[in-house]
Sequence to fold (334 residues):
Amino acid sequence: MASSSSSSSASSSALKRLSNLSNHLRPTNSNALVKVSAEVSEALSSGHPVVALESTIISHGMPYPQNFETAKEVEAIVRDNGAVPATIAILDGIPCAGLNLEQLERLAQLGKSAQKTARRDIAHVVATKRNGATTVSATMFFAAMVGIPVFVTGGIGGVHRHGEHTMDISSDLTELGRTPVAVISAGVKSILDIPRTLEYLETQGVCVGAYKTNEFPAFFTETSGCKVPCRVDSPEDCARLIDANRKLNLGNGVLIAVPIPKEHSASGSLIESAIQRALTEAREKNVTGNAETPFLLARVSELTGGASLASNIALVKNNAAVGAKISVALAQLT
Fold:
């Protein structure tokens, strides 16, 4: 009996060593670390179009319950245009791709108590089992991990004004340089330095396309005075661009900038004046780092009597419709 037990133990030990060796040679699939909703998982496995959505706009973009209502409306627009929405967030330390209504409302109620989570923050939020609202960089990271090729947001981060002195440059830009996800946005946030942001994206090798225009949009207004190297005039044009980028294994993302609809374009001079005042106040109060953007956007909204927030919501909804159509065209293409 003893020899039989010894043989069994040796066999078990050998199997364990083989298993460990196998894991070293073929690491465990990191996708298992992300909780993908049943709807999103089924859509991905069947080749159905899926659109990733960030969650910082829910937690830090506006107050409850307006943020919850807006999140539901954006998801509904994605569905109405033929794709499945996958809002991404970290809940109790678990990265999630695709939130149900209860989870969406929980995130909306958490508001700013949820940690604003960029790529650098992911490991800490997961390790400490906290709640994290993902920014563009973190949302891109998780979208790529689970295989979602199209991501819709309002505006990406970029080079901050006076960034040549402060070195304040959003991780969204480096993420676009190393993560193969197409980002549909209304350009970069209006508080940023657009020309320097475009220069940085060029350095990162990111293809920047403008939707139905030759000029990069300026978030709240349709024009910035900055030309783009690539113009795309339809969802099919965008899909072909994304598909080529993916097939060539360039390894970087694509940024497609969609101008805010004319009827929702706020007064450029009003917004710019509010931005300059908010920037001055931020410097006086020493608001820096990842606290700066939420402060500036909230202050600009106050100074413009809510006009900037209304325009922000309108452009996010427009981006969701365009992004869903691009996702559908890409699914048909591939």
About this structure: The chain has one domain: 32-332.
